[in-house]
Structures are given as C-alpha cells and as structure tokens.
Amino acid sequence: MAETVKVGMVSLGCPKNQCDAELMLAKIADAGFKIVNEAGLADVVIINTCGFIQSAKEEAIEEIMEAISRKNDGINKKIIVTGCLAERYQKQMDEEFPEVDAVLGISKNDDIVEAINSVLLDKRVIAFGDKLCHNMEGKRLQSTLPHYAYLRIADGCSNRCSYCAIPLIRGKMRSRKMENIIDEAKSLAADGVKELVVVAQDVTAYGIDLYKKYALPELLRELAKIDGIKWIRLLYCYPERITDELIETIKSEEKVLDYLDIPIQHCNKEILHAMNRSGDEDSLRELFAKLRREIPDIVLRTTLITGFPGETEEQFTQLAEFVNDIKFERLGCFAYSAEEDTPAAEMPYQVDEGERQRRADIIMGEQEIRMGEYYAGFADKTFEVVCEGFDRYSDMYFGRSMHFAPEIDGMIYFTSQKEQRPTIGEFINVKITDVLENNLLGEQV
Question: What is the CATH code for 148-376?
C-alpha cells in the first residue's frame, strides 16, 4: 500500500517549523510513501501549522478548510494537522474539525508514519505529549533550494516576553548538543549546502541551558571550519546578548556574514518593561553604534511592534524617530496582536486595532523611503551573488548577495551573457545597475 499512497505537506510559519516539516518528510519518504509537492495531488495531506499570531492562525485555519473542501470533493482522502496551532488548541482542533483525521502535538512529530498508517485504516488519531520531549534530531528531507538550509540550534524560549505565546506552545528553551549540530551541518555541506541560516527563537541564548554559558560564538567557530560551507547567517538575536565575543567572532570568521537580525520590538523603556524585555533607547543606540563601528558593512535587520497596550502617541513618536535615526537596512513592523493566555492580552489600555495598524503603516512607509536611499548606494557596485533561478517573464536570472536573507529580503535580478549562463547555487559577480521597488537590477560580470 505504502508505495502508491501520495503524501503532501503544507508547512506554514517560521523556519523552525520548516525544520520540523523536513524531519517528518524524511520519515515519510523512508517509510516508502510518495511525496508530492502539490496538496491537490496528495492522498494524505499534512498541514504543519503556525499559531504564533492571529494572522498566522487565520492562514492555518484557511489551509485546513481548503483541505476539508478538497476531501469533500474526493481529492484528498485524509487530513493530518501538526505544528503550533495543533499544539496550542488541542481540544478545539479535535472538536471543531471532525473532518480532520489526525491531530498531532509537536512531541508526536516522530509518530507521523504511524499516524498516516492509522488514518489510512480509517482510525482517527489525536495524540499529544510533553512538548519538552519534542525531538529536533534526525535525518531531514530538505525543502529549501539545494544551496541553503536552515540549521536549528534550539527550540522553545525562556525569555517570556509578555506578548508572546511561544513559551506556551513550545515550552522553555532547549539547546541542541553542539556535536549534533556540527554533524548535521557537515551532512548538509556534503549534500551541497553552501549557506547555513542559523535559527532558534533566540540564537544568542544558545548553550546557556546545556553549557551554563552563551556558546553561540564557539558554535560559529566550529561551523566555520566545515568544508563546503561558504556563508553562515544569523537570525533572531536578542540585543542584550550580543556580546563582545560574538561581535569579535563575526568580525574574524570570514564565513559568518556581516548580517544580524535583532528584533528589538520597541525602544521606549516603559513599553519594553511592559513587554518583559530589558534595555532602553540609550542601550539600543549604543549597541547599534558599536556594531556599525566594529563591523562597518553590517546589515542590521529588526522587527517592531506598534500599538502595544498602553503605547501613547509620544511613545510611538519616540519609536518612529529612533528608527529614522538608526536607519536599519531591513525592518518589519507589526501591529500588536493580543494573544490569549499571554500577560499582555490582559493589560489595561489596549490600543484600538485601527490605530495599531496606522502606526505600523507609518513606520513601514518611512522604511520604504529609507530602503530607496539604501539601495541607491548599491549603484555601480559589484557583489558576490548566489544564483537562485531564472524568471522567464523578465528574461532575467535572480539571486541574493549577503545583504539578502532567503525568503524575506527581496532579490537581485540580473542579466547574463549566454556563454556564462549561471546555474542554481552558483556564486557569481553581479554589477548593480538599477533599483526596482524592493529589488536590485544588475548584470553578471
């Protein structure tokens, strides 16, 4: 039976969720099922959900409803729901979606093959366990382009920001053993991966639970020794944990890119305190000035929340002026989303939803102007770019330089002479000739 059953997976949300999906896909493939890329072609469709904020929950529910509709039309035979939404709303998933054949919590991801076999025998499966037993180790079936992969170094989070549901969903932070991470990175490199995108809820906290110290710099130095790895990119750093040792490691290790994603959420001391985050505007200004002084070409990325409970117009103005001064190369701004069971959802002085969004739109509008100025500085410069494909509509290739993280930062579109046609995953030099919205245009040189 297993050879003929087609299994498809829709994985939503963050790269950490994608790592879970890849671990499950490897098990499914090893069990002899045929994996298909289109949910509409699958006998069994797995929806690996995100449950982080309201918009993510809505997207997940939409995917489940679409799968139910396909099931009613006889296209998908069975539906399995996994991931953060399943973990967070165990009872509701069971009761509100009777058409779903299996609901698995994150600690039951390893049982995905058994769940498929059970639903094929018309047995409904609802399985949850201790989220701290969620497994991060094992063989992965890579779902990204062949030349880059996400490398998860920890799961869960112990920061307990007052707006965030991650500790409720994923539990406290658990670092992976360094030797396991190194082995996985070596195996990815052997499979042709050239860029490692290091992810966790907070990569800078890596090792504090296992080794009683912040071990990210040491881990980076070990990863940099791996043959075949060319770029190492860091996502999700906590500002207070960017130590001198980490800065020195980024400076001295050529493979570790001068690119840091530091979600600060706000700069006002009272708002940060209400968010259960430390720091203030002065400490943040000091950090960013230091990073730019020590690593002159650094690309700084951040995310912000507007309309947090109690945020006054003055506090919002302070944030907008701070962002204008710092001039982040990359920035995302989100209207505050009140997540049930989080302390912030119970706070007084909730800001009107429309006002939250208005404030986010102002910040993003300003950022668009800044991006134009930033990209104008790229004109006539030549950068090393990894080719990621060919766009037949524009008749151009596209790829990324070190300034662009996969899937979030736009692209460089470029032309190439026929005799030097680049292949996907190849690193080439591209001279920037123009800017088009959030993308750069250039030519291979």
Answer: 3.80.30.20
